[in-house]
Amino acid sequence: MMYREFSIAETLSLLDQTMSGVLVYDRNKRLVYKNSSSLRLLRLEETSPLLERFDECRYFDKDGNYLDPEQYPLSRAIREARSIENEIIGYRRGGVERWLLCSACPLVLPDADSDLILVSFIDYTTLREAQGKLELYLKDASSEVDSRDRLLLAANVFTSVSEGITITDAKGDILIVNQAFSDITGYGPDEVIGRNPRILKSEHHDHEFYAGMWRSLTEEGSWQGEIINRRKDGTIYPEWLSITAVRDAAGFVSHYVAVFSDRSDMKAREDEINKLYYIDTLTDLPNRFLFLDRVGESIRMSEREGKKLAILYFDINNFKYINSKFGYLAGDAIIREAGARIRAALRKADTVARLGGDEFAILLPNVDRAECAMRAGKNVLDALQQPYEARGQQLFVSASGGIALWPSDGAEPGELIANAIIAAKDPKRSDVDNPQLYMASIGERVKLRLDLESKLRHAIEREEFELYYQAKVRTGDRSIAGMEALVRWRGEDGRLISPVDFIPLAEESGLIVPLGKWILFKALQATKTWRDKGHDLVVSVNLSAHQFKDRQLETMILRALQDLAYPPSALDLEITESVAMSDIALTIKVMKHLSESGIHFSLDDFGTGYSSFSYLTKLPLQWLKIDQSFVRGIGPEGKTENAIVKAVVSMAKSLDLGTIAEGCETVGQYKVLREFGCDQIQGFIFSKPVPENEFEALLGKAPLPDPMAYEPDRDR
Question: Is the pTM of this model over 0.70?
Fold first, then answer.
């Protein structure tokens, strides 16, 4: 089954299985969900208006004083942005006093419009009444009745309750227990009477916990809270325990009354719900919400101890392509494996979380130096970049990592994570084998980049782009065979923004897909107009790696041709060696499908990549474009470049491919290319890239003047 995050509806439906009351409110305290147990415990009807606005109900504290609505667990959870645990509040319904043991915690769900607050509660009335009646019996015990008989009488009153009851003397030795005590703990009365309740001790709590309990009993006369105890058979269980000191007429402690309930089933439900909210289901790692909480706690501890900590962020590059090519099941498997690898590469004390998608975060406590975080990050990157298995194939992936240190790179959890992400996405990072440390200068670069990306999105919506065209000229008769369409972005201030600045960003952000669609349509539209005027032109449009991996590419191209009634043979798609070789099987498949419709292909920047010449026979190509880095060096002094260009032209002819030389600027370069038999020239020697109106004027001048006829050969 394909993994996906639980929706609100799916998540909350699970809460109907718990016996606890559950109410979910938005941050404006409006009710958005209630389970059936909440209605039963609050003794309300399904449509009761009291549920709709939590703060319109009246609650009081354990001493009977009405609470300010701002002190309700719901209000405190919203205001303090943290969980409020085990608050006892009372209310009256129909003249009857009821008590709740209540908790409230913030929730973050993937499809929620805003943060939610979950309020859970159990009925505490029986425990409170049982304890109160026992205290009353003990205080009012008359001298005419044997104290032990009086205690027995009191205990018999509560034989029917499901809560365990223990009564001790002032020294803490057990005098009597009820049947529920035995049912819960496994100990019979004869096994515990005369002994101290510490026989139930689980060693789960430290000395400070018990010291605080006795301090509260001494100073306030009572203590309540959750405690982990051990049954007779050795199993551990949680209980909610309330202890009250009973004083005699002289004011001295005569007894202690303890009333407790077994919370095992409820705790299991809570753990299940907490896991749903705080643990990523796919990787079983903490999710973003729990990670933020742990970072906050670690910051508070570091402040007390004077130590530093580090936040590391990692994501898998081009993960959308993995999902697209291999399917979501394979993607899920890689995410699970990545999470396991990260966990194995770190210390037990470090926290690993999945923030979402292919994003992971790590909390490294007690980091003395940045080098320690760098070493840990290097280990993680090495682990992530080992090959994966996907559909029986070995798949190699790359990952990016960033590091932010506390307190130098941020004071709050959210700020630290944001800066670690900024470091990982630094557009000028060069060392891809190591994580990037955050610096303020990186933040500025990323901020500028994000600003440019935002403007780019709006520019696509507002069509702020223009197409320039650079002519491709036949070497033999200097006629214009076609042109390459090159995009330019004219900003709001009227200035042209260089493609060097926005094309890489468009590719990384995925905006190249809508931008590429616009470029193709506009180029075909303009070329069709010129062809209708009698110019036999072929327009060349570049395809990026991101576009090539888009499943809708073929459909988009063929639909554009159909909508404009444009001949496929007059469209040439240019791809670079790196694009072609990034996934050769996909490249061949897409190119063959499009070639069957008559579309032509050119291999751009030939000779600069790492392709095997054997693949030239497998790719349905019509043209090789000789990269300008070779063209720039040809001439009388460029023996190496001359040999390379001559070999490329000769090889292309043997493969029945045409050749186009890019970047030809001088008469000397033009002469050599013509002598070698290069078919077409694209460069400043004939025309720089020009706007649509200027290119149309250039068409009227064809055939273009012979450069050797009007310019001295500087290279001769």
Answer: no
Burial (CB < 10 A; 0-12, 13-18, 19+), residue 532, is exposed
The Cβ of residue 483 has, within 10 Å, a number of other Cβ atoms equal to 29
Indicate the Cα dihedral angle 706, 708, 714, 716, nearest 10°. Answer: 150
CATH of 462-709, one of 3.20.20.450, 3.30.70.141, 3.40.50.1820, 3.40.630.30: 3.20.20.450
Topology annotation, domain 128-268: Beta-Lactamase (3.30.450)
Q: Is 400 helix (H, G, I), strand (E, B) or coil?
A: strand
What does the block give as tokens for 174? 């057990």
For 604-658, the pLDDT digits (tens) are: 877 665 555 667 778 899 999 998 888 988 877 778 888 989 999 999 998 899 9
Burial of 104 (0-12, 13-18, 19+ CB in 10 A): buried
β-strand pairing of 359-365 with 680-682: unpaired
Mapped onto helix, strand or coil, the DSSP state of residue 680 is strand
Token reading at 30: 């409006």
- The token duo for 599 is 């579309």
CATH 3.30.70.270 corresponds to the domain 283-438: yes
State the DSSP string of 535-583. ---EEEEE--HHHHT-TTHHHHHHHHHHHHT--GGGEEEEEEHHHHHHT
Interatomic CA distance for residues 272 and 659, integer angstroms: 66
